[in-house]
Amino acid sequence: MTRQRPRETDLYAPVKALLEAQGYTVKGEVGAADVVACRGDEDPVVIEMKTGFALSLIHQAIERQAVTDTVYIAVPRGSGAPFRKALKSNTSLCRRLGLGLITVRLRDGFTEVHADPAPYRPRKSARRKAMLLKEFNRRQGDPNTGGSTRRGLVTAYRQDALRCLHILHESGPTKASAVAASALVPRARDIMYRDHYGWFERGEKGIYALSVKGRSAVTEYQSVLDSLRNDNQPSERAKA
Questions:
Q1: What is the pLDDT of residues 189-211, one digit of tens each?
Q2: Nearest Cα to 61, choosing from 29, 91, 120, 101?
Q3: Is CATH 1.20.1740.10 the classification given to domain 153-239?
């Protein structure tokens, strides 16, 4: 038996029942709105419905904010991780836009309000801001093209690792303290010990050398190494 796809009209009765239980008079397809609910002298409530989250639904809801501040979107409630992820993202989006969000479980008409329309007051994260500025200030130059994939991005940490890689490529096996001094990277020992990129090999008495992968990285990151070679600002990196 083929499962019938939901229709926007399937949402109407449960949404209407939800609003009528709160004392609203509800009517469908009034003007450009899917659903309009009125209660006394209050501003009208407008609900735009779709069979799933879509940018067009958000656009319609934003247009209805020219009529009233109380605008909701309504969609069928799905199941599984993809829907839960979409619900979380779109609930956050609705809050930012001052929209409400309702889901309807079509098998029994259960409705749930996930967000009510309200002015958005973003909560700033001082920690995230500090991390962003720290990475910005520690990174030398502008080695990445905006919009690139996250894989292989040249971060400040990678730049420090590349400085260590360059010293080992030029000098051969070297003590960690000497690498730190020559590369102007105070945390060189920790970077090479953790070996996040697989570039380094640790020998006896704290002496480090390049691994096979490290030698390949010399060629792979040659342009970045060239830009780092003339970096003579140890005080700035030491402060970071």
A1: 999 999 999 999 998 888 999 99
A2: 101
A3: no
